[in-house]
Design goal:
Strand order of the largest sheet: 3-2-1-6-5-4
Structural class: alpha+beta
Strand content: 5-15%
Shape: rod-shaped
Number of strands: 13
Number of helices: 18
Largest sheet: 6 strands, antiparallel
Amino acid sequence: MKRWIEQRISRQVLTIFYVLVALITFTSLGTYFYTQQAVKATTVELERISEQRSRATDLFETWQSMQYEMRGHVLLGDEALLNEVRGAQTRIDEQTAWFERNAESKEEVTFATDARLLFTIYTTRVMPGLERYVIAKTNGEVDEPFLQMATVGQLMPKNATSNQTRFKLNSSSAADMSASIVDMESVFTDYRADLDFQETSLRESLASQLAKAQWLWLMVLLGAIFILFVSLQPYIVRLTKQLQALITNSERLAVDPHALLIPIEPLQNEVGQLSKSFNEMSSSLIAQHDALEREREKTARLLHTMRDSIVFEELGTGHMYANEALFELYEQPVPFDNRQSLYPIETYYEPFMSHIDDREALLAFTGRARHKGIFDETFTYSMQQGTRIIRMYAEPIELQQERFGLMFVSRDVTKEIEIDRLKTELVATVSHELRTPLTSILGFTELLAHRHVDEAKRKRYLSMINSETKRLERLVSDLLDVQKMEAGAEQQDFKVESLYELLSDVIEIHAGSTELHMLHFDCDDSLQVSGNPARLRQVFSNILNNAIKYSPDGGNITVNVECDDDVIRVAIEDEGIGVSEEDAARLFEKFYRVQNEQSRNIGGTGLGLAICKEIVESHGGTIYVRSESGKGTTMVVELPVVE
């Protein structure tokens, strides 16, 4: 039953209401019956008192009537009056007998006893004496003033009653006789006064009982309400705490789905069901929030891994967010530790914009996308005084058919543009380098085919054709080497070889090809390197060839080898024309050539040092240059030591 009641708050409220109504009803009925019983008992008692008073009055009036008629009989001697007296005597006897039968209280018993005693005294002594007195007056036996009590007293019968009653009949005078008879009136008066007192007491008692009943009803009602309140207070407190806990948990969930929630003891009623639903809802919200956070983090991490920089702008708030690539694009340190979301960039906007060369043009492009909805154009701008080229485009972001943001995507196309430039230079260089030997070969072959030349010229022409063919072969080989290295298709056949012997062979070959240069060589013959001997010879041969070629006036060429811990450092120094600092930074780029008069006269494809760099790096080493225009060049190759 209790469990059934606790399952519904409406049942609980109705149960409380019914219990309260039942308490009020039972209390009211109890008070009503108690009051009715008290009123009924008091009414019965009042009716009895009223009957007692009425009969006492009748008895008193009958006594008075009997006394008046007896006096008339004494005065007049009329027998009819005496008969009336006897009739009254009979009624008094009956009325006194009624009091004797119905006497309940002590006062009523006393009154009945006194009335009977007075009636006996009057009928046994007074009336016989008065009758004899009338007869004596009539017979002339008494001749004196009317009704002398001494005479009447002598005529009264002598019996024991007069000695036993508390009413002492004194016959010494008529006045004394009358005073004694008046005692009867005092008995009636006292009895009626006692009845009046009893009636007043009953009425006061009834009023008191009614007041007590009312107070009892009020106290019982208040007690019932208090007991009901005390018994319901723990439940109400628990219910209130649960509702307050639900409110607090709702506020916490609104701020943080992972907030610590107040545990709630589940009830059987609607609040318990609400608590259960709330817990399920909070679990679902946490799961959905975690899923959304995972999706958001996944999206953010995907955007952060993109090499293109992305800027997202919310149109409603103007807030801007970007991925990590934007900071890398503007060469700014990333001020955030995690990649769980896009980074707000409002505070970094001005530092970013300071790198842009044409800021107004960029703002005009973003303004067209933001305000005019133009998204079919691509904008290209430069940064850092034209050293970097950026290409940008804009895309609208819509949600439920309504645009709420813009996405600006930027890409650094400096390398692409440089590649296009290199391709152009490659075509120009290759076409020039191929055309020159081919032109020579074609010209000499036409001379040999269509003209008669002497033996000396023929040999010289064939020598020229051979030289140009080898030049053409070197150019094609260099192009093929670059292509293989970039594609990673070349097979590396590493061997451990003496560095001293390798360098000695290369130096000996180049020493015989020049008469203007003095080659100096210093190397520990115990040093060894691991690598492809042919490729390493190609590196050092290329460097020595450049040292000789770019030292047209001759001079010393020094090959110095040092070993520092686990690194072998080979430095090849010449006393040639040298290069500037800017050109030195780009010497290892493919097809790059120093743009000065002397270099243009010397010629070349710009591939030799690029090939050298690829070979050295494939052997785990590094290559770099130290040079100053007009003061020679030092090319340094570092390779790992082999035990």
